[in-house]
Design brief:
heterodimer; A: mainly beta; seven-stranded mixed sheet; four-stranded antiparallel sheet; 50% strand; globular; B: mainly beta; six-stranded mixed sheet; five-stranded antiparallel sheet; 11 strands
Chain lengths: 115, 113
């Protein structure tokens, strides 16, 4: 059984640029969620995808967008990067749409630095 | 509103001592509660979860937590700390409806030899 794999592990971008982060979900998991974890903080929910449709969103602006593909891998896209977007971005997958009742499998994250 | 509060951003215990990490939640509906652990440069690993079955929940690595509705608490305990327990611990809550997961700000556990 494979885990959740995220790429890249580290990334440096300039303010105003766009970035795409990738996540390969655990085998058999059809639900993926993305979280932003600022330094010294707990993860904050960005959005969740179930079977390629967004089915939940946290308090993040529209410049944060996502995609989920038929093989259940996913992307997080952030446009017009701001300095405050610097954080660890975590992807989490679950075998069911209400996976947050049962807990997710988390990846190791992508550390994004905006300069 | 719904949230979790973790009391104590840093906790230090001696090796072999009791570990107690505190978590209080606010929720107007029965919550689902979780504890996750995060080791340096890694993602989150599920320690245990409460989903309205037994109030005393046993997890991995010898950890357990007790759901106390009257105190709105879900504190994490371990009888005897090991050096390998040093990590960041997060309490999280999900309401009975909706699909958002709310994390606390975390407690950093240091184990002193």
């Amino acid at each position: 059984e494979t885990g959740v794999t995220q790429s890249p592990t580290h990334l440096i971008k300039t303010r105003g640029q766009q970035v795409t982060l990738r996540c390969s979900s655990q085998s058999g998991h059809n639900t993926v969620s993305w979280y932003q974890q600022a330094l010294g903080q707990g993860p904050q929910f960005i959005f969740q995808y179930y079977r390629e449709e967004e089915n939940g969103r946290g308090n993040f602006p529209p410049r944060f967008s996502g995609l989920q593909f038929p093989n259940y891998s996913s992307e997080l896209n952030v446009n017009a990067l701001e300095l405050d977007d610097s954080a660890l971005y975590l992807c989490a997958s679950s075998p069911r749409s209400d996976g947050d009742r049962y807990g997710y499998t988390f990846g190791s994250g992508t550390r994004l630095t905006v300069v | 509103a719904q949230s979790v509060t973790q009391l104590g951003s840093h906790v230090s215990v001696s090796e072999g001592a009791l570990v107690l990490l505190r978590c209080n939640y606010s929720s107007s509906v029965p919550p689902y509660l979780f504890w996750y652990v995060q080791y340096p440069n890694q993602g989150l690993q599920l320690l245990l979860k409460y989903t309205s079955a037994a109030t005393l929940v046993k997890g991995i690595n010898g950890f357990e937590a007790e759901f106390k509705k009257s105190e709105t608490s879900f504190h994490l305990t371990k009888p005897s700390a090991h050096m390998s327990d040093a990590a960041e611990y997060f309490c999280a809550v999900r309401l009975g409806t909706g699909n958002q997961f709310y994390f606390g700000t975390g407690t950093s556990l240091t184990v002193i030899p």
